[in-house]
Amino acid sequence: MPETLIPTEFAAAPISLWRRGMNLLATLVAAGAVLLVLLPLGAIFAYLVYKGIGSINWAFLTQTPKPVGEAGGGMANAIAGSVLILAIASAIGVPIGIGAGIYLAEYGRNRLGDLIRFTADVLNGVPSIVVGIVAYGLVVLTQGHFSALAGGVALAIMMIPTVSRATEEMLLLVPNTVREAAYGLGVSRWRTTLSITLRTATSGVITGVMLAFARVAGETAPLLFTAFGNQYWNWKINQPTAALSLQVFTYAISPFDEWHRQAWAGALILILLIVLAVSAVRIAANYGTLKGAN
Amino acid sequence: MPGPQPVEKSDVVAMPKASAQPLITAGSSHVADRIFYFAMLACGLCVLALVALIVYQLISKSSPSWHAFGWSFFFRSEWDPVNEQYGAFPFVYGTVVSSLLALILAVPLAVGVAVFITEMCPGWLKGPLAFTTELLAAIPSVIYGLWAIFVLVPLLREYLEPWLMKYLGWTSFFEGPPYGIGMLAAGIILAIMVIPIISSITREVMTAVPQQQREAVLALGATRWEMIRTGVLRNARAGILGGIILGLGRALGETMAVTMVIGNRPEIAKSLLAPGYTMASVIANEFSEATTDRYLSALVEVGLALFIVTIIVNILAQVLVWTVTRGTPARANA
Question: What ipTM does this complex have?
Answer without folding.
Answer: 0.88
